[in-house]
Amino acid sequence: MSPASVIIDRTRCESYFQRRSSVRASLKYRRFKVFEAMVQQQLTLYSNKASPFVQSVHIALEEAQIDYALYDIAFGPNKPKWFTEIVNPVGKVPTISYGGPQVPPDQPSPESFKLPESIVILEFLADIKPEAFLLPKDPVVRAKARFIIHKVQETLRSTFPGVLIGRCSFETFLDALKEIQALLPSENGALAVGDHFTIADAVLIPTLMRLDLALRHDIGTFAPGEGKKVHDLIMHGTEFKRLKDYFDTFSKREAVKSSWDEVRPMLSPARIKLNAIPGNRICLLSRSAAIGEAGTASISICLNNQ
Ligand SMILES: N[C@@H](CCC(=O)N[C@@H](CS)C(=O)NCC(=O)O)C(=O)O
């Protein structure tokens, strides 16, 4: 049976069992659950916790309670050969492998389906587990979720790295942030769209976490103190109250916390270049209490290797 036909059966079966409450139906339901566990396809997420794109997929897997294996892939030239040969010739993460025989992640099977690109992967996860509502059922709300993703990609994910390396002004970046805030529902505590955690949340949250992290620690080529000032404006001013509430509420979710690593985003190649700037280096090294000795040691090694 192909994975697709299993998905259709599963959706139909779930609603059939929800409509019935007899003992016979519950026995059948239990048998169906055993069957479902037997047919679940293997899924491996090739990951690197520094990446916001990976974190989006990681969060969605956790939220949808899809079983998966996680395998870390180093950035740069030290990737395992099998990764570019069998999993993703472009060498980027996130990439997932889906289906095929049960094999260890570092011995990927040529028979499994390989899929790169975080947004495409997120849509795929929504398709294989429709009952998790990673995409809303209502076509209008679905479109809203997709529009938020489009805007985060077009505005935030392009201006934020630019701000850190001096290629984008804080003004342009804050305008992008306002545009995103305006797309959120006005009530505090509300998700990006509808009543369920969707792929729109999975895309937005990792970017907000990284901008919080970098600006809070004043990491960027801007004048010392500028990052912290903008952080203060976003996190403590009135202009971004709704966005701040969204960030505070949803960055505490289990799926978000378990996919987050405060140290790794700081160790990505772009950040390491920034860290080489004297002011930033001092700022980073003084964070030892927040990130732990191991993080500080790794950052020092990266700096020494410049
Ligand atoms: N558009 C891609 C971007 C993926 C991407 O750029 N991944 C980077 C990490 S953030 C990567 O794997 N780089 C490989 C490397 O630096 O060696 C997506 O949304 O998945």
Automatic annotation (TrEMBL):
> Which parts of the sequence belong to the GST N-terminal domain?
41-133
Q: Which domain of life is it from?
A: Eukaryota
Entries under CDD domains matching the protein: GST_C_family (cd00299), GST_N_family (cd00570)
- PANTHER family according to UniProt: GLUTATHIONE S-TRANSFERASE OMEGA, PTHR43968
What is the protein named? GST N-terminal domain-containing protein
Q: Which organism is it from?
A: Hohenbuehelia grisea
Q: What is the lineage of its organism?
A: Eukaryota, Fungi, Dikarya, Basidiomycota, Agaricomycotina
